[in-house]
Amino acid sequence: MNNNLAQFYGWLHLQASEIRTGMGILWRDAILRQLLLISLLLNSVSWLLSALLTSKVSADIIGLHHNIYFGITLIGSPRQVYFIPLLGLIIIAANAVFSYLIKEESRFFMYLFAVSSSLVNVFLILGVAAIMLINFK
């Protein structure tokens, strides 16, 4: 039993060391680092807008989606707004993992994943801004 636990611990340590090395390689690429920092900055703007929105709301229910044909089509708790920046953070993490997995094959796809993270976060900021417009116009 102790031998299996020691083997598992050794394997886990080896994997963590490999991930640190791979992420270090990704971090040393200046373009990738700048794109990742831009994505994280945009995601923090999304978090700040969500916090601002929930602090300004006095009701327990807000409009979360608006349609020009039907009006407000989705209502919910103000806390549900935090799913939008959380989704952006998950996408940044997933794209970092994908970049790590293909780090030696093609730099083009690494940059594509990083740019897509930034672009997704721009659209998520627009989504939070739309929710602000729905509720405070």
Automatic annotation (TrEMBL):
Protein's UniProt keywords contain Transmembrane helix: yes
Keyword annotations: Membrane, Transmembrane, Transmembrane helix
Parts of the chain that traverse the membrane: 31-53, 81-102, 108-134
Name used for this protein in its record: Uncharacterized protein
